[in-house]
């Protein structure tokens, strides 16, 4: 998974998947995340720290983003890994990781163009909102705020989610993929909705684990509602086999009605996470059916998840022999969510 992740968001998704699967106490899924440990046992989270080290080794010292990209948001998906590397580094005089994370944050807050409602653009060249961005930017800002005990940053992570929701969510409670800018994709792209729901879940969990959880109750209530909006709206279109279409509400037998394992996996993980967070089993049937659909499509020969949407084209499935690194990360995230739900509720 990590070796095949070449794009910034793929590496970010891989690092988050590893955190949730192998090092859950360091991820937003841990309700006791803060205060964060300032040291780690030898070789602990070495795979995540290696990603951060690789990013830093390739970074131009003068660059403000963690990695060069036409997207202002995708490099931020690596921010949590870099923050963890900085916080737990043995040599506390080494500011390389901290400076890189701070530069990335400053770039987002002060350099990237914003929409009229304050949303940080997903693109550097123009104001454009992508649902994907909610997984990249707000969780990084929230994690930064949690580490620093900075309520303003925690609030900003919420503000960014709200700004994107105002533009992308519609009367169906599903989110459009891309709006504003020189071109749009108003379809209810499954993976875009999954990115948004999963990103909101991470922000919610981070705020809830922070020292400001008590005075940010309304923000948490809003986030819960917005996540559930996507989950319940998506459930209406779940096929009997548990799968969801690439465009969630696509008409049967149309090009975008093909079922996508990647988005189904990530959205199912959010259903498990929300069910555990709220101790509410209403969405568990949706999650279990989706997981069954996904598990049946894991190759017994390669271990890769088959049947995923092409992550670079949005509207076609991967070809035979082609695999999606983000889909593999979503599979790991799903299994981690199901494991934690089972451990936390004693239900299978």
From TrEMBL:
Biological processes, Gene Ontology terms: carbohydrate metabolic process
Annotated GO MF terms: hydrolase activity
Pfam families cross-referenced by the UniProt entry: Glyco_hydro_88 (PF07470)
Superkingdom assignment: Eukaryota
Keyword Transmembrane belongs to the record: no
Keyword terms, alphabetized: Hydrolase
Hydrolase recorded as keyword: yes
SUPFAM superfamilies registered for this protein in UniProt: Six-hairpin glycosidases
Protein name per the record: Glycoside hydrolase family 105 protein
Organism whose genome encodes this protein: Pterulicium gracile
């Amino acid at each position: 998974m990590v070796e095949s992740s070449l794009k910034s968001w793929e590496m970010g998704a891989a690092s988050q998947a590893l955190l949730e699967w192998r090092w859950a106490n360091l991820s937003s899924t841990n309700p006791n995340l803060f205060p964060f440990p300032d040291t780690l046992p030898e070789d602990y989270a070495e795979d995540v720290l290696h990603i951060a080290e690789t990013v830093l080794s390739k970074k131009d010292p003068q660059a403000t983003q963690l990695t060069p990209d036409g997207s202002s948001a995708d490099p931020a998906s690596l921010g949590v890994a870099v923050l963890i590397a900085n916080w737990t580094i043995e040599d506390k005089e080494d500011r390389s990781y901290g400076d890189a994370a701070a530069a990335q944050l400053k770039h987002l807050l002060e350099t990237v163009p914003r929409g009229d409602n304050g949303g940080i653009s997903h693109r550097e060249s123009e104001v454009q909102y992508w649902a994907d961005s909610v997984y990249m930017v707000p969780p990084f800002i929230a994690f930064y705020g949690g580490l620093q005990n900075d309520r303003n940053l925690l609030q900003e992570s919420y503000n960014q989610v709200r700004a994107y929701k105002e533009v992308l969510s519609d009367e169906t409670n599903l989110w459009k993929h891309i709006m504003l800018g020189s071109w749009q994709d108003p379809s209810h792209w499954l993976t875009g909705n999954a990115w948004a729901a999963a990103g909101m879940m991470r922000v919610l969990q981070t705020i809830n684990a922070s020292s400001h959880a008590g005075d940010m109750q309304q923000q948490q209530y809003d986030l819960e509602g917005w996540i559930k909006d996507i989950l319940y709206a998506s459930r209406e279109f779940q096929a009997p086999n548990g799968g969801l279409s690439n465009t969630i509400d696509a008409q049967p037998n149309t090009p975008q009605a093909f079922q996508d394992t990647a988005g189904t996996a990530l959205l199912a993980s959010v259903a498990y996470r929300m069910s555990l967070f709220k101790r509410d089993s209403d969405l568990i049937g949706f999650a279990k059916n989706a997981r069954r659909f996904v598990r049946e499509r894991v190759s017994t020969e390669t271990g890769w998840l088959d049947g995923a949407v092409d992550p670079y084209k949005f509207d076609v499935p991967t070809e035979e022999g082609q695999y999606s690194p983000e889909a593999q990360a979503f599979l790991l995230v799903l299994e981690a969510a199901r494991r934690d739900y089972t451990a936390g509720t004693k239900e299978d």
